[in-house]
Amino acid sequence: MKLLAFAASSSSKSINKKLATYAASLIANATVEIVDINDYEMPLFSQDKEEVLGQPDAAKAFYAKLGQADAIIISFAEHNGSYTAAYKNLFDWTSRIDQKLFQNKPMVLLATSPGPGGANTVLSAATVSAPYFAGDVKASISVPSFFDNFDSEKQEITNPAILDELQSALAQLS
Questions:
Q1: How far is Cα 102 from Cα 131, in angstroms, rounded to an integer?
Q2: What φ, ψ does residue 161 adopt, rounded to 5°?
Q3: 147: CATH
Q4: Are 58 and 42 in contact (CB under 8 A)?
Q5: Do 18 and 156 form a contact (C-beta atoms < 8 A)?
Q6: From CA 111, how far away is CA 8, in angstroms rounded?
Q7: What's residue 95's pLDDT?
Q8: pLDDT at 174
Q9: 156/163 Cα distance (integer angstroms)
Q10: Of 90, 98, 79, 81, nearest to 6 (Cα)?
């Protein structure tokens, strides 16, 4: 299985990238590609910009990357209760190529934050909206209090209940 994983964050220190990378490592016999959304940076989307620029090559490349995967893991950072601006911009540009940008791929959606909310607000929004964009959401998991539940030195989840929930969710991708 070809697995695409990424954090919906532009932070170079993203805990969501750590979570997505760790989750992807738990899938046996997968060829994993970790994507950095910073590699797909584009001007702020607007219809005016689209009329001038057309569809940017970066959006086309990201759409193609999604299409090449057999399954997708996304871990969402939460900024003020919503998507990060970087992810939302990439999503907006890519959805103009094809509104069904997730191309019926099975997905596990994750989110984490340093606090007890675990970025659950953005995760809920992503989970509800993904099917409208041809995302086959198999599971969604919020990991609260990241630094209490993830060992940064060993790069692994330390909470057995969260780990069990994550492994069960990931099993649905294969």
A1: 9
A2: -65, -40
A3: 3.40.50.360
A4: yes
A5: no
A6: 9
A7: 98
A8: 77
A9: 9
A10: 90
Please list the rounded mean pLDDT of every run of 10 residues in the chain (174 residues): 98 98 97 98 97 97 98 97 98 98 98 97 98 98 98 96 98 92
Domain that holds residue 58: 2-171
pTM of the predicted structure, to 2 decimals: 0.97
Q: Which amino acid is at 172?
A: Q
State the Cα–Cα distance between residues 34 and 6, nearest whole angstrom. Answer: 6
> CA 121 → CA 18, 136, 163, distances in Å?
20, 20, 21
Number of domains in the chain: 1
33: β partners:
4
Which residues is 111 bridged to in the sheet?
76, 142
| Burial bucket for residue 159 (CB in 10 Å: 0-12, 13-18, 19+) | middle
How far apart CA 87 and CA 52 sit, in angstroms, is 22
SS3 103: coil
**What 3-state DSSP class applies to 1?**
coil
